[in-house]
Amino acid sequence: MQFLEVNHLKKYFATQKAVDDISFGINKGSIFGLLGPNGAGKTTLIRMITGIFYADEGTISLEGKKFDPTKDVGQIGYMPEERGLYKKMKIGEQAVYLAQLKGLSRKDAMEKVKQWFIKFEMQSWWNKKVEDLSKGMGQKLQFVTTVLHEPKLIILDEPFSGLDPVNSNLIKDEIFALSRKGSTIIFSTHRMEQVEEICNHIILVNKGMKILDGSVSEIRQQFKENLYQVGLEQDEEAIASETFDLIGKKNMDLFIRIKTGFSTNDVLQFFIEKKLNIRSFQELLPSLNDIFIKLVEGTPLSRQFQNTNA
Amino acid sequence: MNKIWLVMQREYLTRVRKRSFLLTTILVPLVIIGFYAAIIAISLSGSTTSRNVAIIDKDGLFGDSVEKSKDDNWNYSFIDRQDLDSYIDKYEKNGFSSVLFIPPLNIDSPGGILVHSHAALSLSEKIKIESVINRAIEKKRMIAAHIDPSQYKAISSDVSVENPVDSQNGVKKSIAGVAYAISFVAGILIYMILLIYGTMVMRGVMEEKVNRIAEVIVSSVKPFQLMMGKIIGIGAVGLTQFIIWILLMFVLQLLLPLIFPSLVHQVAAQSGQQANMLHEVLAGIGGLPIGLIIFSFFFYFLGGYLLYASLFAAIGSAVSEDQQEAQQLTLPIIMPVILGFVIMTKAVNDPNNGLAIFGSLFPLTSPIVMMGRIAYSPPAWQIILSMVLLILGFLFFTWLTAKIYRTGILMYGKKASWKEMIKWAFRK
To answer: Which residue among A92, A219, B290, B371 is least crowded, i.e. fewest CB within 10 A of its CB?
Structure first.
C-alpha cells in the first residue's frame, strides 16, 4: 500500500479536459516531482488532492483510506503557486491563525510558530506586518505556515521562486529533513535541475494526461540516445568512423552518437587504432530538462542537447 | 462550525482593531450630534432676531398700523413726510435695517413696491414683508368689495384633523407624523447598512483574491466556511458599531444641555406652540409599536445584510484586482437596493399601497420597504410572510452565491461575466 494513491482521476471543465485519467502512487516519505508545462493540469490535480476541487471521476486514497477533504485537511500542507498572506496582519498572528485553521489549538499553534520562528531566525518579525517584508522573507514565512502543523503530506508548488541561494538551501534542507521524518512531499516545478537534485520519483503531465512516470535515474536511462563525450589529448580535425556519428565538437571534446550495432568498445577501438589518446570517455544521459522539452514539444533531443551540455 | 468561528474572529478583530474603525465609530455620532445642535441653534436664533423696518407709505395702504402675523416679531415704523430718495441715506442712521416704500397703488394691479436694505434680504425675510403687504392689500380689496374684514376673518377656517388608530389595545392617539419620521429614518438606515457593509464584504473578498491568500485558506477551510465567517464577522463589526453609536448618542444627548446651557433656556422660552408639538410627538411615540419596530429593525438589519452580503461576496470573488470592474458588476445588485429605497419613500406616505405591500414581501427589497411600513402596524400575516420570505431568500442566495464564490476566488486573470457566474452557480 502506498501513502497516496490516485486512481483514474478525471476533471473536465467546460472548455477542456484539465485532468484526463491520471493515476499514480507515492511512497511514504518520498519526494515526488509533479512536472508539466503551464496549463498541463498540475494545479487542478493538486487542487483535487488537497480537497479544493472534487474529482469528476476516480478516487484518491490517503494511507489506504478514501480521502475525505473535511477530515484530512489537517494532514495536508499546501503552498500554492498563487500564494499570499494578509498584508495588513501581523506576522505572528497570521501564522497562528493559519495553523489554527489547520486544526491546531491556539496554544499548540503559538508554540509551534515560536519554534519555527526561532529555527528560521524570524523571532523579531512577530509584530511586523506582511507588507513590511521583502518577497523572499514572505516566502520563508509562507513555507513555515505550510509545514507548521506537521502535515503528513506536503504539497509545494514552485517553492523556490523568489528565494536567494542561501534561503533556497535553507528551505531545501528543511524539505529533506521533513522527508526523513516521514512526511511525503509533492513538489511541483518547472526548474528541472531542482527536480533532479531533490526528487526520488517524478511524473510528467501534459494536456491533462500522464506521459511519464518513474524514478529520475530510470527515466534518464530510458531516454538515453547513445550519446557520449570523448575527450582527446589533441585537437583532431577529421574524424569519421562507421561506429559513430560525430554530432558536435568543442575544442578537444567530441560529442558522438554510437550507431546501432556497435558498442562503446568498438568506438574506443577506433580511437586506439587511430593512435589518438583519450583523456576522458563518458556517457551523456539526457537531463530531465531535455526529456521534458522533447516530450512536451516533440522536438528532437539532440538539437537541444548541444546547446545545454556543450 | 469551529472554522467559521475562527474566520469570523479574525475578520472581526482585524477590523475592530483598526484605527479607522475607532475613528468612524466615535466621529460619526459626534458629527451627527454636532449637526443636530447646529440646526437647532440656527433655527432658534433665526426666529428670534428682530428687525426695525421703516415704511414710507405714499398710498396709505397700511392706514396707521401694520397688521402682523402671530410669529412676526419685527417692528414697523411709519416715516411721514419723507421722500424715498432722500431717506435712503438716513434710514440706517435712524436705526432701521431696511425701508419699505409703497408708491401710490392701483389696488387691482399693485406694483412698484420697493424694499431698500444694506444687506440683501433672505428669502424668509422677503416672504415676511410680502405677507404683510399682501394682507394689507387683501384688506383694502375686501373693503372695495364690501366685505367686512372682521367678518371674513370669522368665516375663514383652519382645522387640524386627529387620527385615532384602532388596535387590539384600544384606541391610540394619532401617530402619522411620528410614524412617518421613524419609518423614513429606519428605512434609510437599513439602506445605508446594506450598501456600506455589503461593500465591506466585497472588498474583503477582493483583498483575499488580490493578496493571493484565497487558495492557501481554502486548502484548510471550505470556501463556504470562509465566506460565512467573513460575512458574519463583518456583520458583527456592523452591530458593534451600531451599539456603540446608540450608546454614544444617548450619552451625548444627555450631555448636550450641559454643553450648550443657553440652548435649553431658549427651548424653554419658546412659545407654547412648540411645547405642544413636543407633547404631541411624545404622545405619538407612545402610540407606536416600539417593541415591534426595534425587533424588526434588528431582524431586517441582519436578514437584509446577510442576503446582500452573500451577493456582494460573490461579486468580490468574480472580479480580479480592478475596482472599476467591481463597480460594473455591483450595479445589478445595487439596483434592487435603490428600488427598495424608492418604494420605501412611497410606502411611508401610503403604507397599504399595493406596490408597498409587494416591496415589503419581496426579499430583495423587504428589509428597506418593511421598515418604512412597520410603524403603521401592517397586518401580522404580512410581517410574518415577509420575514419567512427573507429567511428563505437568504438561504437561497447563500446557496447560490457560495457556488459562484467557490469557483470565483480561485480564478485569476480576466473578470468573469454574468453569464459565466450564472453557469458557475448552477453547475453541480
So the answer is: B290
Contact: A82, B212; criterion CB under 8 Å = yes
List chain B residues with CB under 8 Å of A103: 220
Alpha-carbon distance B276 to A245, whole Å?
114
pLDDT tens-place string over residues A77-127: 999 887 788 888 889 999 999 999 988 899 999 999 999 899 888 888 888
**B3 with A50: Cβ contact below 8 A:** no
Give yes or no: residues B282 and B393 share one domain: yes
Of A73, A87, A89, the CB nearest to B220: A73
B348-388 pLDDT, tens digit each = 888 888 898 999 999 999 999 998 888 888 888 999 999 99
Domain boundary among A202, A220, A238: A220
pLDDT over 90, % of chain B: 18
CA pair distance B311, B142, nearest whole angstrom: 67
Interface of B with A (CB under 8 A): 3, 6-7, 10, 14, 207-208, 211-213, 215-222, 410, 412, 423
Largest Cα span, chain A = 77
Cross-chain Cβ contact B423/A100 below 8 Å: no
Nearest-CB residue to B218 (from A52, A86, A98)? A52
Mutate one of B220, B320, B403 to test the A interface: name it (highest A CB count within 10 A). B220
- The Cα-based distances of B385 to B355, B361, B382 in angstroms read 16, 7, 5
For residues A98 and A174, membership in a common domain is answered with: yes
Contacts of B344 (CB under 8 A, 6+ apart): B183, B184, B187, B191, B359, B368, B369, B371, B372
Chain A nearest-CA residue for B18: A88
Residues in CB range of B210: below 8 A, 6 or more apart = B320, B321
**Integer Cα distance of A292 and B148 in angstroms:** 111
Nearest CA in chain B to A72: B220
CA distance A85 to chain B (A): 5
Per the structure, the complete domain to which residue A40 belongs is given by 4-220
Tell me if B24 is assigned to some domain: no
| A-chain residue closest to B205, CA distance | A86
What distance in Å separates the CA atoms of residue B159 and residue B161, rounded to the nearest whole number?
7
Instruction: Give this complex's ipTM.
Output: 0.77
- This prediction's pTM: 0.73
**How many CB atoms sit inside 10 A of residue A97's CB?**
23
Q: What is the pLDDT of residues B301-310, one digit of tens each?
A: 999 999 999 9
The range of the structural domain enclosing residue B359 comes to: 176-255+265-426
